[in-house]
Amino acid sequence: MSLVPQRKKYLWVWFLWIVLFFGAWAWLVFGHDRWETVKEHWPIALAMALGSYAAGSTPMGGGTIGFPILVLLFDQPAQLGRDFSFAVQSIGMTSASIFILSRRQPLAWAMLKGAMLGSVIGTPLGIFFFAPHVPALWIKLVFAVVWGSFGLLHLRRIGEIASHEGMTDFDERWDFRVGLTVGLLSGAIVASVTGVGIDMVLYTVLVLLCRADLKIAIPTSVVIMAFTSLVGIATKAAFTGVQPGVFENWLAAAPVVAFGAPLGAFMVDLIGRKPTLFFVAVLCVGQLVWSLHEERAALGIAGTLVSLAAVGLCLFGFERLRAYGAVLVGERKARGERRPD
């Protein structure tokens, strides 16, 4: 698995991006008399201050905060939460990605390239053929189950995950194929429905299957979510349209996330990733409990039990992936320089 070497940093690229972005944002707001719109949507901007920080410092996109804020707290449609996630991450995660690349942070490049190719195919296919048939309640439940199980995984395995150093070096062709599968399936099934998630899936594969260091896995997850968000929002804008209210919320939140996500990527090097991951894991479990409580009437006892069973199935899948990763790592060490084809 090739990593980006620690070369000279080019932070001027990120500063140039910030200047260009704020110039375009100012033109949209002040050149078209939309300042009142921005002020009316200040709550989402405040919420995304936390969301964007989490996006840059953890494997969870800004939509991890934005989706439940809009859908659960503000009682907006789940489809709006999904489209807003794509839109706001197209700025926040892109800003964090430019910051990461400018700092020459190590990335799992082979797997990332495969995931990008899979995402550029899977995400539009999911938007066209899968997401339109998923009811709003199911969108909420998919989000709640996936993120809740992800939080439980970290509460159980945070010490082990945080202890990884470097990364098991498999054959790059193998890594590329794994990334391609992850990008294709999670782009079509998860990201197209919720607007987030492909970053968490790729991150999970990296830390459980490849035993990747968080310093490699998290930046890689940030970059794939930025790429997928751009693919998602471009696809929706060009072909299906976005939900009413997305643009207004985006105008308010965009300048916050443009700084918040890179700040998260920077600050986590100072305070450590383990405390941040633990905090976000608690939030993920909390939104699962909140979602099941808020939708208890629509779900009934049977629906609640099915949702909890889905969480258990996800956790079982995580443990199986972890066990398979242990086997691969053991085989890799036993064979020395030999690599799996």
Could you give a short description of this structure?
The C terminus is likely disordered. It contains 13 helices and no strands. It has 341 residues and is mostly helical.
- The helix/strand class is mainly alpha
State Rg: 19 Å
Strand content: under 5%
User: What overall geometry do the principal axes of the alpha carbons give?
Assistant: globular
The overall number of domains is: 1
Helix content: over 70%
Q: Secondary-structure blueprint of this entry?
A:
Blueprint: H1 11-30, H2 35-40, H3 42-57, H4 63-73, H5 78-102, H6 109-130, H7 136-163, H8 172-194, H9 198-209, H10 214-240, H11 246-271, H12 273-294, H13 296-335
Helix pairs in contact: 1-5, 1-11, 3-4, 3-11, 4-5, 5-10, 5-11, 6-8, 6-10, 7-12, 7-13, 8-9, 9-10, 9-13, 12-13
Structure description:
- The chain has one domain (11-335).
- The chain is built from 13 helices and no strands.
- It has helices at 11-30, 35-40, 42-57, 63-73, 78-102, 109-130, 136-163, 172-194, 198-209, 214-240, 246-271, 273-294, 296-335.
- Helix 4 (63-73) packs antiparallel against helix 5 and helix 9 runs antiparallel to helix 10 (214-240).
- The chain starts with 10 loop residues before the first helix and ends in a 6-residue tail after the last helix.
- Mean pLDDT is 87; it is low at 337-341.
